[in-house]
Amino acid sequence: MEPATSRAPRSRFVVWLHGLGDTGRANEFLADSFPTTAAFADARWAFPTAPTAPVTCNRGMLMPSWFDIHDAPITSVSVRDEEDVLRAVQSVHAMIDREIAAGTNPQDVFVFGLSQGGALGIASVLLHPKTLGGCAVFSGFLPFNSSFAVRVTAQAKKLQCGLQTPVLWIHGQADSLIPIKEGRDGIKFLRGLGMSCEFKVYDRLGHSLEYYELDYCQRWIEKILHRSGREGLIRRVSRNIFLCSNLFNSS
């Protein structure tokens, strides 16, 4: 399913990218569980599902996966499949670009992601040719090897716009699957590019998504909308949930 092509002013658009082995449908509840805020009262949410593919760290088991993951837990020496990541980024960009072409302001587009979805979210906003509203990463990691960072950095600096998208990164000190060091290293890399990043750590949080993280994300969104002067651009108080069950469905 693709967004309508109307040129009328459109509400804010949120893409939620799930973690490894999950599905978009299983995350649809987040549209209603997300703390209510006037800025997102009429937001449309998209919950794409990753394609099914063999995953190396799970002994080649087939499961929904945005890109291959070679090791678990993920560390600085873990192999990253960058070409796989770039293919997934292109698909996310296509989804965002359809929304923008249909009349959504790029600064009203937000990308949220958990774990592997958070890693894809980072790559997607970093390499997008427009400044988006924001990116929230929950227990994520950088999907690039250090050698590939040079290529990403060069492309990002050439585009510039992606570097201006604000990022919130939330991580748990008790995360054993993606250790806190991955979060700290990721933030250091993004800040080194000149991106505006906020890093929030919860001492007892493991590799999971909790309500208080969404509450913090809401306050962060309100803050960046206030800074950009866009908090008043709210057109109605109803919520219309846009569902995209499969990002790679061409129908």
From TrEMBL:
GO CC term (a single one): cytoplasm
Pfam families (alphabetical): Abhydrolase_2
The Phospholipase/carboxylesterase/thioesterase domain, residue ranges: 6-224
InterPro entries: AB_hydrolase_fold, LYPA1-2/EST-like, PLipase/COase/thioEstase
UniProt feature coiled coil, ranges: none
Domain of life from the UniProt record: Eukaryota
Family the UniProt entry places it in: Belongs to the AB hydrolase superfamily. AB hydrolase 2 family.
Name under which the protein is recorded: Phospholipase/carboxylesterase/thioesterase domain-containing protein
